[in-house]
Amino acid sequence: xxxKQIPLGLLQTNCYVLYNQQKDCIIIDPGSEGxxxxxxxxxxxxQPKAILLTHAHFDHIGAVEVIxxxxxxxVYVHEKEASWLTDPSLNGSQLFLNGRSIIASPADxxxxxxxxxxxxxxxxxxxxxxGHSPGSVSFYVKDINTVFAGxxxxxxxxxRTDLPGGSHEQLLNSIEEKLLILPAETKVLPGHGPTxxxxxxxxxxxxxxxx
Length: 211
What we know:
One of its GO terms (molecular function) is metal ion binding. It is built from seven helices and 14 strands. The chain has one domain (2-208): Ribonuclease Z/Hydroxyacylglutathione hydrolase-like (Metallo-beta-lactamase, Chain A, 4-Layer Sandwich), CATH 3.60.15.10. The model has no long low-confidence stretch (mean pLDDT 96). By secondary structure, the protein is of the alpha/beta class.
């Protein structure tokens, strides 16, 4: 199993395409530029099976409708942010995009509990990691020692907590209790910027001193 990082949109939000030898794939956080993403998938002859959202801020959901309609695949989001897809005042587009709203149809599947999620040949461990937003989740793939962390943990930084529903204390708890307990060599694939590892963030991240 392999993955491709594709920064999309004005905020260069990292979309990830996780794929296997059979050319099936899962799309994580298609934030914008749906046509660019479709072109990549066609070039690589990949067949999407689902869209997973680490959370539902506008810069992570901007291409959801384009991709869902193109491939007729389900969208997964945490139940605490189910209404964010349809509400630009909640997903932040109304505030940050100068009146331009990003609206998607409701999710097909709501994530309600932590645990295993299996989609065809792909298996994820779902961790609830709120703090950046109430319904933030991280998707851990044990087979490749990788966690898709959304805007929870970055290289040398952590997610912002000054948006509606954010909590600095909750975010630090999420990182400590759900992410830092993973094996040191685990790759962290964040919502923005370069990839990192759990070991590097424990040793070098200034926001995590003492962990």
